[in-house]
Specification:
Blueprint: E1 3-10, H1 17-30, E2 35-39, H2 55-61, E3 66-71, E4 74-79, H3 87-94, E5 100-104, E6 113-117, H4 120-126, E7 132-137, E8 148-150, H5 154-167, E9 171-173
Parallel strand pairs: 1-5, 1-6, 2-5, 6-7, 7-8
Antiparallel strand pairs: 1-9, 3-4
């Protein structure tokens, strides 16, 4: 059975998840690793779709279960599927043969993760998430966190993540 390394970033809306994911992508790239991302669309409704007048979107609008288009080295896929969590998205992202898949959101998913903590209230709600490895805080205490780094300390975050990458954990069976 195939496996892929998966690491997750969790936190509440506007806590800095996307910014942190971008930092993690840069760190992985500096180590020569190919990264894919999977994101939970937490804004209500479906994600924005491309121009409806393209052929691939006409197919999708007309009821195709999936519509894919390829050009100049980029593949775009739109697929109808009941929301079932991150694993189907991870399987799709694994088709790109990444060394690592970073997951944004899906707080309750059972992957090793960093949680972003803006306040004591955030930590109170996030502290029992599965497999927390690091809490990145805005000066807030995170009692019981395995490790804590200040949000502004990008070098410490990158260093921690580089050590995690070299540690070889986070493999998920597909």
């Amino acid at each position: 059975m195939d496996t892929v390394r998966v690491f997750q970033v969790a936190g509440f809306k506007n806590s800095g998840k996307t910014t942190l994911i971008r930092t993690l992508i840069a760190e992985a790239a500096s180590l020569g690793l190919r990264t894919a991302t999977v994101k939970h669309h937490g804004h209500g409704g479906p994600p924005a779709l491309p121009d409806p007048d393209t052929d691939s979107m006409k197919f999708f609008r007309d009821g195709a279960a999936a519509s894919a288009v390829s050009g100049d080295g980029v593949i775009q896929l739109h697929m109808r599927e009941a929301e079932t969590g991150p694993l189907p998205l991870i399987r799709l992202a694994a088709a790109a043969r990444p060394d690592l898949i970073l997951v944004e959101g899906f707080k309750q998913a059972p992957f090793e993760k960093i949680v972003l903590v803006r306040s004591a209230e955030d930590w109170e709600q996030l502290k029992d998430l599965p497999d927390i490895r690091l809490a990145v805080t805005a000066g807030t205490d995170a009692p019981g966190a395995p490790e804590v780094v200040m949000r502004e300390d990008t070098e410490a975050i990158r260093g921690w993540f580089g050590r995690w990458l070299k540690g070889g954990t986070g493999h998920v069976h597909l």
